[in-house]
Structure prediction request, 393 residues.
Amino acid sequence: MSTAAARAHAAAQSISKVETFFMAHQAAVSQTPAVADFTFGNPHEMALPPLVQAIKARAEPQDVNWYAYKSNESEACALLANVLSDELGLPYEEEDIALTKGAFGAIKMAFTMLLEAGDECIVPLPGWFCYGSMLAAAGASEVQVPLASESFDLDLTAIAGAITPKTRIVVVNTPHNPTGRIYSRAELEALAELLNAKSREIGRRIWILSDEPYRRIRFDGVGFTSPAAVYPHTLIDYSYGKILLAPGLRLGYLAITPTLPEAERNELRELRFAVQMADGWNVPDAPLIYALPDLETLSIDLGALARRRDHMLGALSDWGYRMTRPEGTFYLWGRAPGGDSQTFAETLAQSGIYVMPGTIFDRPTDFRICLTATDAMIAAALPAFRAAAEVRG
Prediction:
């Protein structure tokens, strides 16, 4: 008889590949120090100075309530409603915004709000590797649906085939981790049409969770359409950890689409506080809330990120790698030479070059590179990529 709840074991099973990889990676780096670590989206340079200045300034209390309990503070939510209205072209109001501990917190909040035990949530494959464990902890099931094999577009036929009477949420991650794909308005409109039809067919509303933490990291002037613009039954999660390259700064939000039918919109608005409390006071720390006006204006150097993308993409393509050109995010995704990403990653690791094998994404033929590396790291790593291509190709 197990001591822990079955859902805890299910969450552990879902995240086991990531846990195993992380522990093995830590051990490997201790044996062969990293020349270039392209695994996770961690910073490799000091934090943006204005970010540090803003947090320092807001850490200094200005009254006795500075560090009192916080919730969805009116000033911060009003600011974000205005930002989202301008950015997405939708009439957000402050009551549509819930401040959360990063996108993790926003996703958790969406699952708590919408899912009953036994519900199903459709997620993209390849895709972010934490949806499954969070769903298991909520007593729901992850249903992985492959993206189109070459373009990584949404595969509407596959999504339609995966929908059952238990389907409650379809996750749309745009820009997409790990491929960098950004979905067009036409694709999203087609998805909306499908979900409207399927909702009528199964007799319950299917929602979209639009996972948008990379929304502002885009290249080559590519535009962005949120699913919320074409499908009212959409919740948006967002994190500042990506655009600021500060994943340890747990600041984000969940946004309720303002074009929802009034009764449904009001119901979700009224549930914000209760759900945040039930999720463990899922609200950012006070200094981060105060710093929001400053942090909202900051960004990593997207021009430098684009140059790094082009540098690595050009070199790897010249050496025969089959890479996907990302339209957004800070990742490169491609086919491992020889089609075995685990062996490929192990080969690179012998030289202190670390990449994420596609086994983490249930795509063992592919691999991911995180471009948050410095120029010097990339320059030091490229000879090993060339050598690996010659050996494995």
Q: What stands out?
A: The chain has a mean pLDDT of 97. The chain has two domains: 6-48+301-392, 64-295.
